[in-house]
Amino acid sequence: MMLSLSTWCDVEAYLERSRSILLPIGSMEQHGPTGLIGTDALCPQIIAEAAAAEEDDILVGPTFNVGCAQHHLGFPGSITLRPSTMIAAMQDWCASLRRHGFERIYWLNGHGGNVATISAAFAEVYAERSLSGPDSEIPPLTMRQRNWWELSGVMATCQRLHPTNDGSHATASEVAVTYAAYPEQQRRVPLEPRVAPNGSFTDAEDYRSRFPDGRIGSDPSQATVEGGQEIIDAAAKALRDDYRRFAAGG
Ligand SMILES: [Zn+2]
Question: What is the pTM for the complete model shown?
Answer without folding.
Answer: 0.98
